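Re: your question about NADH-dependent dehydrogenase

S., sorry for the slow reply, the queue was backed up all week. Below is exactly what I fed in.
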Amino acid sequence: MRDVKNRRSFLKSTAIAGTAITLSATQYSRVHGANERLQIASVGTGGKGWSDLLGVAASPQVDVIGLCDIDSSPKHLGQAAERFASARRYADWRKLLDEGNDLQGVLVSTPDFMHAPISLPAIQLGKHVFCQKPLTHTVTEARQMKKAAKKFEVVTQMCNQIQSHSAYRTAVHLVHEGMIGKVREVHSWQGGSPSWPRNIPRPSGSDPVPANVRWDLWQGVAAERPYKIGMYHPFNWRGWQAYGTGQLGDFGCHILDPVFKALEIQSPTKLIVDAPELMPETWTDRATVQYEFPGTQYTADSTLSVTWYDGVGVSPPRERLTHLPDDAKLPGAGSVLVGEKGSLVIPHVAMPVLYRADQSVAEDLPVIPSVDHYTQWADACRGMGETTSHFDYAGPLTETVLLGTIGIRFPGQELQWDAEAMKITNHADAQQWVTKPYRKGWEPDWI
Ligand SMILES: NC(=O)c1ccc[n+]([C@@H]2O[C@H](COP(=O)([O-])OP(=O)(O)OC[C@H]3O[C@@H](n4cnc5c(N)ncnc54)[C@H](O)[C@@H]3O)[C@@H](O)[C@H]2O)c1
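Result:
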């Protein structure tokens, strides 16, 4: 990917040929974006990418001009190609960008480990980016995404779309209105049962790669390994450390999102994990991550404890949930914000429930309507309004989640985090996981 910069220069010089002015990458995208139709491409058109594409294309001002998927079968590239018949088709996202001087925006809906490697060059080309959650696979990548979005002044949105749902927007509003007072502690959990591979070694042997799958392109920046049916592509990559981020990575950017939005926290200063020993290649069955954050105007103290729990059937210890009556039913996934005047239960995904200090449930709460997370990005690219999960916000949220996944590698050991220096200051082995090795020839171009 070393030649992306050259491609960028090439694209920019091509775009301005015949004019006397020089455009920065930023201006380049803006000239084509402001208050005009938005030309977009989607990378990863199957799985969640399909609804991402339909969500953004729902804007009448959007033209889908490029589609890219490493799998040409009907469920992946096929259905998108049928629906957007005039769009150019690609298997290789690098070719899409190479030929994409008419593109203003790119959707990145691939497995987690390819989010940053695809988004960063797109941003460096001045493209607006809509990227799936978690924003990235490593903390370094998350920091890079935030820096790049700022430097190239593109419009970005992470797809933690529940943020725009009435349920989460109402929860944030109630906290900002002081309905539970300042917050003393937070508990967030995902008690569902993941269906992807866990606690298994890497399978031996290899299976023939189906004709419709470009396995080399799927592997992208990751070290090469043999193709195995049903193990990685599609969907099951989540359970493998090389590609996914386990249950915390899969749900953290959703469930912790209203906590971040409501309390305006950014980076933890320390964390400690309780989890079983990690297998060499897959993520664990369960984990508890206790984070400590600096306090904000919405917290009762100068520090805030946020605890994440995942594992089948988990929920927070009831004795910590002071305003909830014994018979209060907790959702299978969500958060409880324990405040000075009451507690807010934020189910994932349903309207929040507010318990007062006397343990009664508050009725007739205000309801904040939903907005459209997808067209919000398309509109912002065209100069109308702003996104709410831009990378300046989504970067630190993702970093927090990914610090938890580093902690899972070192259970029982406190990790102290200096966000500004990007250092786990007390643990050299843990620090190594702030980034990762990349396949030779596929190293990202850091900004
Ligand atoms: N926001 C949400 O609610 C939500 C829900 C599900 C998944 N996701 C996220 O969406 C992303 C995709 O998840 P999924 O479950 O759809 O995975 P998936 O494996 O089912 O689908 C990914 C799609 O991308 C394609 N693809 C893979 N690598 C590619 C590459 N290098 N270039 C082009 N195409 C490529 C695949 O062929 C497939 O069509 C993940 O980051 C996941 O965390 C988010």
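The pocket of nicotinamide-adenine-dinucleotide is lined by residues 43-49, 68-71, 76, 93, 109-112, 114, 132-133, 159, 161, 217-218, 220, 233-235, 250 (CB under 6 Å). The domain at 4-160+374-388 is CATH 3.40.50.720 (Rossmann fold).

Happy to talk it through on Thursday.
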